[in-house]
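User: Continuing from earlier, I have the next pair ready.

Assistant: Great, send them over.

User: Here they are, in order.

Assistant: Folding the first of the pair now:
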Amino acid sequence: MIIFGTRGVTISKESGTFYCPECTTRQPYKLKKARRFFTLYFIPVIPLDALGEFVECQVCKGTYRTNVLQYDPDRQAERIEAEFRRALRHVMLQMMLADGRIDEKEVEAVSAVYESLTGDVLTADEVRREAMAQTGTTVDIRDYLVGLAGLLNDEGKEMVVKAVFLTAMSDGDLAEQEMAFLLLVGRALQMSKHHVRSVVQEMMESAA
């Protein structure tokens, strides 16, 4: 009697190290390819259709899609930090320009708050130069924040709101249009009005 059938066979194509989501650290992996074979007496004889590729962690034995090899947590953290700093500068400058003029107290506030939050120096001259570049241009703040919303946790979002609040309060008062801008920032960051107002209230109480 002739015994035949089909079975899946996995073949290792390459190996290396990757960031394993399960181990949460870099581990050795093997990239494997699965293919269906026609078998004769249980022996794979003729290769048939390809079943796909997957990555197998050699420590936890977890299997993942091949795009897991592209994930680098260090690079991701650097990208988030760069996006955060870029957005922070823009939202503070937009708050500063909300009344249509460049106030020196606000310039000093933007410079001080940015350095306090990021550790990077942003001189008063740089603030003025960037503000002048934005004067008269149409800037939709959502363009800078919507993409950031999914990357920041609640603490990071609150930090952005606090930075904008401190810029607004550099003249000692939070105007109605400035509060509206804060709510716009919060909405772009996918924060509720209640959340934004509670952050503002906390800042006001701490400043009192």
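And the other member of the pair:
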Amino acid sequence: MNRDIAISIEHLYKDFRLPHERRDSLKERVLSFKKPTYDKFHALHDINFEVRRGEFFGIVGRNGSGKSTLLKIIGGIYQPTSGRVHINGTLTPFIELGIGFNPELTGRDNVYLNGAILGLTRKEVHEKYQEIVDFAELHKFMDQKLKNYSSGMQVRLAFSIAIQAHNDILLIDEVLAVGDANFQRKCFDVFNKIKKSGRTVIFVTHDMNAVQEYCDRALMIEDSKMLMLGKPREVALHYEVANAAHDAEVSDRKSDRPKNAAVHMNDIIVRAKNGKRTFGIDEDIIVDINFTVRIPTEVQFNMFLVHPDGRYLAGINTTTDLKHYRPDYGSHTITCTVKAGQLTKGDYFVNAALYTYCEWPSIDIPELIDILDSSYGYKSPRVTVQEISPSSNGEFNMQARWSLPAKDRKA
């Protein structure tokens, strides 16, 4: 196996047998003379991919698609029906955090117990104990029995222990869904540190913002099969469309735009004074989005910029400026104005997405109604930003000022 490859999956299949009748007790088994019959459920069908060493790799899919089953096979919890899984390195599964916890022991005792399960020595756990407690924010509860902890408290403690493991590969399922917003931010800060350290991460989630922000590549699974493997932004958009229309046709061509009878976007128009769509530091990029309303609905628009290589760069939505926006019947135009001086020299594609309205920070996820993006066959307008500042570099133009204390200034 190539040393640069951390995980290799070859022709992986996983089937489960689902019994037609339940026989839970010994009596039922003895008195039933009929041979039990089963249906075969195909959880995974011919999965093939490789994860490079140091890669942050996302796996997405609707509930029941097979993504968690795949993660458990990689983690050695399930055995595949057929196919091969090659692991190059040591592995820590963040799949069902807290396995091995004893509810009758205190939080303190469980830290040492779970640390031992993860391969940490007692000395290492002792040295890291205060760091674990600080991260979990459970100072008052460490001498309480674990059975008195809420599910969220248990996950926080388990995650805080697991991140101390020294393994090369991390498998992360949707274990952070029960954590509060502050704890999730801390976890994602840890992910950033892990990514910079060169460790390999397999990340299963429904959070498409996290996929686009952290992942180098992403895989989408649909009905036990690989649907798409590629750039995170494109996979995230396909996922949103699949969620918006469960009967969307699976194909290798560009995805169909979601079909919504209520509101439909028609076009994106970029207004430029010189007619060439080139902009300087003091100029505004004015973006008009034309749309038609057939059924008045509360909506939110998102205008986002994409690099020519397909990378999602940044986006802005109407949640703050146009709360509870409910356009009336007919044709409309909504305008977004962006200062060109925020961008560095180069070309950008302008895209737009339309969602059902969602009050921030609601736990609900807005539904994608329509999208104008090259991944869905739309010819996105391109804008060019001219040389702006010789002192700034990177994806965006940082507008800031430098200063010196009075004693260091030259007369």
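Worth noting for the second one:
Confidence is low (pLDDT under 50) at residues 246-253. The CA atoms of residues 18 and 39 lie 5 Å apart.
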